[in-house]
Every structure is written in structure tokens, then in C-alpha cells.
Amino acid sequence: MFSSSLLVVSLLSLARATPIFRNLVVHEARSDVPAGFVSSGPAPADRVLNLRIALAQSDPAGLEKALLDVSTPSSALYGQHLTQEEVEAFVKPSPDTVSIVNEWLSANGLSATPISPAGDWLTISIPVSKANALLNAKFTTFNHPETGTSSTLTMAYSIPTELKGHVELVHPTISFPNPFGLPVISAPLKAAPAANVSSDAVPASCATTVTPACLQALYGIPTALATQASNKLGVSGFIQQFANQADLKTFLTALRPDLSSATTFTLTTLDGGTNPQGANQAGVEANLDIQYTVGVASGVPTSFISVGPNNGDNLGGFLDIITFLQKQTTPPQVLTTSYGQNENTVSKALANSLCNAYQQLGARGVSILFASGDGGVSGSQSARCTNFVPTFPSGCPFMTSVGATTAINPETAATFSSGGFSNVFTAPSYQSSAVSAYLTSIGTLNSGKFNKAGRAFPDVSAQGQNVEIVVGGKTGLVAGTSCSSPIFASIVSLLNDRLVAAGKPVLGFLNPFLYANPGAFNDVTTGSNPGCNTNGFPAKAGWDPVTGLGTPNFAKLLAAAGL
């Protein structure tokens, strides 16, 4: 009798402990379809979705503290970047989280595959019919007529109550992709005169045609070759944009004759990425990014990271490239990306997950820079709006957002330079005093159109208009913050080269260092970034949401870094 009773009690306890996963609660929802997208009805029931599940990380607050400790100049731990294993210890989900999520999937005849180094991202393949039932969703086909693209998404989804606190999000569900991402073309691709710039002055011609020599004169960028092979610069490539070797050679021959015309870049690929070299396949964005990294970061080993069409992250590869770099034992110390999208297209949970991924690389000593966008206060591209539209990932506090300037003597804000305040992320401590001073200076201007408590961007800026490039053998001018990010990234790489040569750690996550040294920038105090039927924000003395802290002064930044 004793043994039988014990068995019954054990079975009852087991039954009570096993989740039943029947009570579903809404986990994420959105009320609006982003501008430009239209619904064409329910997605076919047999369409297979590759869904990703983000699990709760074990200690995200601990990782943030560790990141700020190694990135803040006044910290005793400044420069003591974390190892890959140390970062993953903060990120790895708890055994309870892994267990209950796998139980849920197994109960529904599914199994997941980990796709991130720490196991905080899983992937499953599932038909629409089953995804609708599993998540109490209504997956729909959304078309974007202007670009001819389509996505299978839902306006809401649910998860079992037992998974609350264990599952951060399921993706792609309510986040819409970025259909655009190319720089503004400021002039036809035709012959443009090269400026003859001396090292001690910036001639007037640089106001209409920006070249590497103009930047060297304007910002004091050295022409001497970098010496440290371990110091690398990564350039993100998306949406079938290819960097052309022959165009780079033509560019260097004409505009960096002091560099060997054979100077080139290495190719890194993922998601089926390629880099074909036909003259008609050369991409404006890819060529711009490569020519103004190889051509400005003299001698720094540069890699073009081509993300192919086989990405399943519904973000054009944004998530895949970060996961790819997280897996590398020695990722590039600087990564520049000239793409982005409006913050309102991305769910808060997804924005947080991507931002935390940037945080992981930052803790390991990687400087992550993004172009702030080209729509002024109306977002990544100029659009109709009432309230200001912040861009993503510029609102993330763990990366560096780069705005654009134009003209010389003095520089002024480029009107297209996106800037403002995030509606997702709160203002980080490293910029609080600078942003507070700006908000005080503008009083009630644009009141109600932006979130005063949000993370403010851009952080810095650089030239972004009338920038000379070569595409398909033709010389022309382009504009956009897409120009500014690779320029600033090149300067960071050259600073890192000097630091490594001196036996010091690289800069890593930049923002606490940048805001601690506002005197290392050329303050931009004129211009604005209009949009949403307003004049946007005015550039002012000190930080502003058009040009950030200003444009770089290489010598002062080098001194601030202790050299």
C-alpha cells in the first residue's frame, strides 16, 4: 500500500508541474500598418515561416553595467574589454527558460535550433496555418508597391502565460522591414573635378566637391599608413549592393595617389552573399562605403561584409550580421553601416533585442556606427508626418549615430540629417547633461512632436554632401548620412591603430568617450533638419539633434585618447 500511494502522489505532482500551455495572452501587437505597406489578405496556409524566438537573457543589467565600466573614461575598468565567453555568460538564458520553451515547442510537435552563440535566439520552421494556431495570430501578406517587395506578418500574436518572462519575442511577426536604404544621389554620375587640397588649408572647392584630401585637411586626418594588422574595419553590405574593385582602383588613382592603387579590401560573406565585379553591378552605396573607408583609413585592413538574400530575419540581414560577428573570436574593431529604418516599423521588443546585440559587441571592444538617416526629423527618408519620426537603430544607446554636415569655413548642418529622440529608448546617462542643455536652449520649440525623455541622436557628424565617388567607371557626387558614417568610422580606425601601436586597448563602444570630450569636435552651430511641415531642430552650440557633438578633430581626439 505504501509503495502504491507514493506512486500516485508522485504522478499527481508531475501532472501539476507540467505546463499545459493553453492560456494564451497577447505578447506584442501594433495598431497601424507603416506607410507604404498594404495588406493583400491572409497568407497562404501552407506557406512555411522561419520564425525566430528570442529568449530572456540571464543578466542583461549586468552586461550593461560591464559595458559602461569598460567604456567610460573615468572608470577604473576603462578599456578592459570583455572576452566572448564573459559576454555570453551574461546573455545565456537560464536552464529553466530553455527547458520550458522546449517543452512548449515539443508539446506542439516542434523543435528549435539555436542560432546565436549564447543560445538566446532559436529558430523554428512552421506553416502559416500552424503558426496562426500556435500564436493565436493572423499572418497576412503585406506588399510594398513602391519597391515590389512583400512580407508575411501579423498585427498581433500571443504566447502561453507560462512563457511570460522566458520569451522576449517571436520574429518576424509585427515588425516591418525597411524597403529602402540607399544614399541620396546629389548629382548625376558624371565627371566631377577633383579638388587640389594642400594639407594646411581647405580650399573653397571642397564646399562643392568633397574628396579624401578635403577630409584630411578639414579634420586633420593623417595620410600615413596604419601599421597594426590586428586592427580591422568592417563595412556592412546589404540589399545586393556590391563593392567594385576596379572602381576602387580608379578612385584611389585619382583621389589618393599617395596610396598604392592596388590597395583593396577583403570579402566576408553570409546568407549567400556575393560580390560580383561587373561594371554594371557596382553599387552606389557599397562603392561609397568602401571608397571612403579604404581611401580615408589609410592602410587599415578593411573587410566588405556582404549579407546575401538568404537572410531570414526580415530585417534585410541586420540581425544576421550581428549574430555572425558575435560568433567570431576576433570581430572587426569598427563596424560601419549606412542603412537604417524608421523606429516605428520595429517592435519595441525587437528593437531592444537588436540593441542588446550591439551592446554585446561593444563590451568586447567593437565600435558600432550607423548613419542617422536622410529624412531630417521625418525619419530615414523624407516622408509626410505630424510628429517627428526617430530612426532605428540610431535610438539605441549602445551604438554611435552619425549625422551629416555640408559646406566648409564653417561647416553647417545638412538639411537631410536625421536626428531627434527615440520613442523606445530612454536617454542614457552619458548624454544627459548635453541633451538637457539643448532642450533648455530651445524652450517650447516643437513641443509635443518628440519625446523629450528619449535617447537623443545623432552623436556626431561628418561631411555628407557632394561627396565624390566612382561607380561603374564614372565619377559623380552623392549625399546622405551614408557618406558620414564610413568617414567617421575611418577616423575611429586610425585612432585605434595608434592606440594598438602604443600597447593600449581600442576605443570600443564610443559614446561615453565622445560625450566626455566635447572639445575634441568642431562645433556646428548653423542649419537645421526640416521635416513634418516644420523647420525641425536647429543646430546650436554644443550637442544638437542635427549634428550631434559636431565633426571630428583628429589631433584632439588622439589627445583625448591619451596619445
UniProtKB/TrEMBL annotation:
GO terms for molecular function: metal ion binding; serine-type endopeptidase activity; tripeptidyl-peptidase activity. It comes from the Eukaryota. Residues 1-17 form the signal peptide. One of its GO terms (biological process) is proteolysis. Pfam families: Peptidase_S8 (PF00082), Pro-kuma_activ (PF09286). InterPro entries: Peptidase_S8/S53_dom, Peptidase_S8/S53_dom_sf, S53_propep, Sedolisin_dom, Tripeptidyl-peptidase_I. The keyword Zinc-finger does not apply. Residues 209-563 form the Peptidase S53 domain. GO terms for cellular component: extracellular region. It catalyses: Release of an N-terminal tripeptide from a polypeptide. It is found in: Secreted, Extracellular space. Ca(2+) binds at D523, V524, G542, D544. Its cofactor is Ca(2+). Keywords: Calcium, Glycoprotein, Hydrolase, Metal-binding, Protease, Secreted, Serine protease, Signal, Virulence, Zymogen. Secreted tripeptidyl-peptidase which degrades proteins at acidic pHs and is involved in virulence. This is tripeptidyl-peptidase II.
